[in-house]
Protein 1
Amino acid sequence: MKLTILGGGGFRVPLVYGALLTDHAEGRVTEVVLHDLDDSRLYAVARVLAEQASTVADAPTVTATTDLDEALRGADFVFSAIRVGGLEGRANDERVALAEGVLGQETVGAGGIAYGLRTVPVAVDIARRVARLAPDAWVINFTNPAGLVTEAMSRHLGDRVIGICDSPVGLGRRIARVLGANPREAFIDYVGLNHLGWVRGLRVAGRDELPRLLADSDLLGSFEEGKLFGVDWLRSLGAIPNEYLHYYYFNRETVRAYQQAEKTRGAFLRDQQARFYEEMRRPDAAALTAWDRTRAEREATYMAENRETAGAGERDADDLSGGYEKVALALMRAIARDERTTLILNVRNQGAFSVLDTDAVIEVPCLVDANGAHPVAVAPLPDHATGLVCAVKGVEREVLAAAESGSRASAVKAFALHPLVDSVNVARRLVEGYTAVHPGLAYLG
Ligand code: G6P
Ligand code: MN
């Protein structure tokens, strides 16, 4: 089986390859093709993969190319994990937004819109090529903002594109852990959009264990989301929100913390990764050791400003290996080998979430088998959550309209309608600021 990884020179590719190396069963991936625009990044990552494979007998072969069509031909699975504009682009997304006093996070608020506006045209081009060159391939989209990008691609690939994120999985795992439940036996009742969802229940053998967690202050305050949101607020909600909702519920504090940070997340990662890729140019560099050190530092500092404003302290050791690669492998196995399983994924809701139209991509538990991912029908959200989901979906649709038409007015509308952008004038200035710094937004006339 052939797996093509777009963004193959990306820093998290060794996580995916490491997961593939643990799979020795019939029908596993035997061939990995890395595609990237940048040769030196491909070279760096290929060095890490070669060290990972050195002790594994049946390791998948790895080839690298900068030719997209060649990479796609004959692929059974395509992972799309690209970053249009690179980490410099991410840092600019943050800077422009924070200067206007609004959030610049890569997936939430103004920053997420700017990143989406640059990424959607590229993702659509990829989707069209996949439809032409590898029509039977399954596309697994990691590219952020993942829900929006998956919806853009689904207009060309239908249900053959599935978006993934490790945050709901991590959340479910943490809740199961504090409740003493086996995450494999638990059904996580979760719904929303990517980075905008809530766990409303956790069922083990048909019994909802979440009320037990909400009733116990010690348990509730003992894990990441409890520390981030605070026990009282979780009880008021009666649900456990995805960690990215911290940017909504504590917006003022997070914006201030990001404004005051020595470096924004994007700028920190830009500099950190530049050092790693530079090091990989040295012929004697220990590639895997350098990569792993960089990875550990990245994971330890994830959402550091949010945790600081909440007084949440360090991350739990158990949370440091995200599980990003495990979701991807589990999904691929379920499809390729008809190993039926339930995973929280980003798919067109097909009526499973009735406040949105059937083509709207949502994040929801899905039954996965050889025919793809089938969303499980879910109970409605409370009004406040439905309102947020609908508002943000409306923003996403405006981003898609802007990317399709090149209309600047649509881009302004996307920013202006976002619940975390507080004035149409701010939205106008954001479009000015972003088009000035991002060559990838030149299409907005
Ligand atoms: C989480 C999110 C991903 C994001 C990742 C890395 O896992 O779900 O969407 O890409 O964190 O975040 P970072 O700030 O390290 O790039
Ligand atoms: Mn994510």
Protein 2
Amino acid sequence: MEQHNDDLLRNVHRPAFECFLSCATFFIFVLSRQIAAAPASLKEAYGDMFDVGVAIPSAMLSEAERLTLCTNFTAVTPENGMKADAIHPEEGRYDFAEADEVTKLAERNKLKVNGHVLVWHSQCPDWFFVDAGKPAGRDLVLKRMREHINAVVTHFRGKVFSWDVVNEAIADDQAYLRDSKWLSSIGEDFIEEAFVAAHAADPKADLYYNDYNIELPEKRAKTLRLLRELKTRNVHIDGIGIQGHWILDTVPFKEIEDTIVAIHSEKVKVMITELDIDVVPRRSGADVRDRETVGGGDPYAAGCPPEVLQRQARQYAALFAIFKKHADKIERVTFWGLDDGRSWLNSWPSERTNYPLLWTRDLQPKPALKAILSEAQK
Ligand code: XIL
């Protein structure tokens, strides 16, 4: 009889119990989605997919900046400290001070360092190309380039994970290679020679070619040509960096995706190396020597309209949707600066007040940061 009552009780309560169970499951599911919907940092959101990097001007960061850096990023690129004009201002005189600060900061905070940059037409002192007041010949420039690469790469061996060996060697116009002093003094093989010297100085470092606008079909084709030529000649190259200096409302999403796929299918690594989304109109490209004033000077000196920041957030999220989709192909995504106040786009191509990054000038998260973080959960 007692047994019978128990069964009765169980049957009566079963529907109620089942209802309770499904409600609880539902609430746990909703709660977990809620918690999961808000990763606290870029590193938490994307760190499993690829390295998330940032360019830093020097190691002289405030404590708040250092915290933001370490919470969000897994890699750093010295913004200027390893460029030839900073590190090798005169023949035979190296100044590693600023770059050493960056590598020490990275070591203390367990961040990977991408060395930027060994051979580039900009921020490179003239002495490389001059011999007793006249243009130096191929042999001398090649010797200087090799010595420079050897000294810099050797100095940072074991501290630098990867190098942008050659930057921006491809032409924006019809030509294959950019008309630069490296090209005119050494010849087309300056690129190959640079990679060979870098690999000899640190066989363990990853070696990359880095450039802007190479997502656009014509420059992309030339980049793939360069890559294939290097590989045919057995030159060691590990990857290609797409700089990613894009402009609000003209981000070439499809071309970016196509380029990620195209580079990956050449069996090398793909990186986005200098990401920012400029909100002040300018001409496309990122040649630091091009100065201009377009689009009416400094339209957002008094602040950036919220609507513009929202558009920027949506476009950043759309970019990260592509990066997430191709996470298996992408090695690293690096922002060119930590906060809006630190961006080079405040002074290039003209002086203006810009808002291209993920944190405000006083280190508050912008809508773009929130949009990128929630994109990770979709
Ligand atoms: C920029 C720096 O951010 C500025 O501080 C400097 O005055 C000029 O160079 N492509 C590159 C980077 O590869 O090295 C450039 O950095 C931006 C464009």
Protein 3
Amino acid sequence: MNKSCINVGILGWGTVGTGVSKILLNQNALIAKNSGVELSVKKIVKRTLPAAREGVELPVDCLTTDPTEVVDNPDIDIVVELIGGTSESRTLISRAIRNGKHVVTANKALLAEHGAELFQLASEYRVSLNFEASTAGGIPIIKTLQESFAGNQIHSLYGIVNGTCNYILTEMHDRRVDFSEVLKAAQDMGYAEADPTLDVEGIDAAQKLILLIALAYRSNISLSQFYVEGITEITQKEIQYARELGYVIKLLAIAKLGTDNRVEARVHPTLVPERSLLANVGGAFNAVCVIGDAVGPTLFYGQGAGEMPTASAVVADIIDAAKSVQQGVSASISRAWLAGSQSEVDVSPIDDIETRYYLRFVVADRPGVLAMIGTILGNWEISVASVIQKDPHGMETVSLVMLTHSAREKNMKAALAEIHTLEAVKGETKLIRIEEEVDF
Ligand code: HSE
């Protein structure tokens, strides 16, 4: 088949859908010049039909409330799913694939949960299922891992992939305000969701990590298999002590290839050296650092959300799918997901990781307390790198902040359990892992 014009149907006309329609309608000639494909927006599905939108002039009869006018429409070649959620989107994508349509989606939650099934289906029907916009918005990290780095063994990957968390942490760092205050301001300004749980608890970042790991390690892992911790417990004290020690706190999604064919996967607040590029990724921006055996360290930076950056990624996927339609070749399908449940690597349990730690103990300020804590850490083969105590003598409790050398997580947990039996240790200990490998 050699079609001159490729027809696109869009499910969902919210923020990203509007951005996609703007690019497809307003940059049609540019896209044709750049990529050699001519795209036409045939149908857009919106549950309740909206009034006209500024900057978008849709063709007559383009808007509909009925998704079958897209997924069952014989004239439509490419279906773009931008409705989100994991139920209706799954049904509609499956139906579009069964109807032989190429699919583009920005839906990380759906792919993180049902990716194996959907890619299997796409493979069966020889259509593509493209998902660049699902992770880090406008940053082309999916294509980079799938294509540009295909000749690399990925040693490790570190992502600031949640803009809401990065915005909150940056404000806490720069303006010295508390988590709850920044979150409220972010919600008032429309940066953070009314229910920010998925973002601030690290789930959104974890869903994106699942996709990155699938591509980097041909491994199909689920949310329940790895450690996820959000930023809700980060206080001004942690931000300020970290700063004093030469670090900045970032929520990182981390993947590392270990020995025995296992991969470390985790999402948690992390101390990164303040001079590193990652430490200086501020506000709602995203960045993904990938270290490959051939390419070495690389860093990709840009806007991870928002109307036009996300639309930019969706349009790139549409163009890729359109080329497949036009050339009549079977689609470029992500091989990683085709492995289904037969992952090539296993996930290491968090207890097995080895890393450096920031610890803040809340203790009674009297002779011998530091020695007792140091002895227990030593007994568990945890070596202390530095200690600071800033609170003035005479207070009921003080903060004792330590940085350790690299230690095994299992030992750290056991040591902390023992330390908490000491009468002089008064409150919960704050533990934040440190990453030095991102120091470039
Ligand atoms: N909620 C996400 C963020 C954007 O804050 O980065 C969508 O992936």
Protein 4
Amino acid sequence: MTTVEAPASHLRENPYELAKEQLVKVAASMGLEDSLVDVLCACKKAVAVAIPTRMDDGSVEVFEGFRVTHNIARGPSKGGIRYHPDVTLDEVRALSMWMTWKCALMGIPFGGAKGGVVCDPKRLSLRELERMTRRYTTEIINEIGPERDIPAPDVGTNASVMAWIFDTYSMNKGHSVLGVVTGKPLALGGSLGREEATARGALYCVRAALRKQQLELAGARVAVQGFGNVGSYLARFLGEDGATVVALSDSSGGIYNPKGIDVAAAFARKRETGALVGLRGAEAVSNEELLMLDCDVLAPCALEQVLHAGNAGGVKAKIVCEGANGPTTPAADEILEDAGILVLPDILANAGGVVVSYFEWVQGLQEYFWKESEVNAKLNDIVTRAFNETWDAHERRETSMRLAAYGLAVERVAEATTIRGLYP
Ligand code: NAD
């Protein structure tokens, strides 16, 4: 029997400390009471579980998993599950707090949660992944549920993983429980438009931000880091809207062509070889170089803390669209702001996924499913309203888009917490 331990993390700073720092900064600007800040800084519940899993060769590996609920003042908690070798409890705590703010900013009736398993899904066979997922689900079965806490995909997980979670939970309850998880396959009560929703929401934000700056998407030069669920669809949508996609990357490196990359060819290359590097007509760049390229819009859509004090000064983009959660450290944030670069913060720019997850949950509870055009139109309404509210607060309070977004979100959660009162 072997125990799988986390390798040294890719994180430069403790993300939970950063998330609390952000909250304290926003709370100070709003004059929030210290005791309320203490309540909001803490996670309501954090569960750590051991996940013994039978491997294909007959051996047993014990993975470590987490599920954290940050806050449920506005509704059941909602948040993805990450499978990645660098997952830590504090990373999951930070991600759960950001989910609370994101749901509040979007005005949807959820609190925040997140889950993670320390593993490298690329090194597990399909059967190993299924057995590990089913055991993880069983270990957290008392924490999740349609009225309690509703997981979804995140880095390293997808619709198939959600299907196993749905099935394991339902088998234990004795009937199908559609509302227990979102991001499910369409055949199992998934929502049309969910897979593309995070990227679509980011697209709406980029469009609106360019408009505010009297710029056009057509002809704008964009660089996208990360070619997974968020990055790949965002690159496709931006390209379809007339932008010139000058750079793309995945974990094995990036590709660059100042005249524009054929995004459809990049999809084909990734599908055929598992990587983007080597695409004909594009030169290789590192993930670090991609962030510094001359472009109008930079969209980090991979992992946290890629923009930090050491490299933020080299960013040349006019707009940074945070497709990933937490890609910019607070120190980098200040550097970008001083340089006049508009940062569309994660809780706004990548909220499209949780909005359509909310739609999926509603459709599952009603057992009545909507057309894709209806899903996309409702998504546009919610994200555009949140963008406009954030923009107004950004101008009114003469503050960054991040502080404006956090201000609105924290205000809403603080209000719900105060009105509910402290139990008992
Ligand atoms: P994914 O697993 O589908 O894709 C991640 C991508 O990042 C892959 O292309 C991978 O190769 C690349 N990557 C991994 N390590 C990298 C590195 N060190 N440098 C560059 N690229 C690297 O994940 P995803 O669902 O697209 O999520 C990406 C980010 O977006 C995460 O921060 C996630 O929390 C956030 N997010 C996702 C959703 C969603 O609906 N999937 C919603 C909101 C936010």
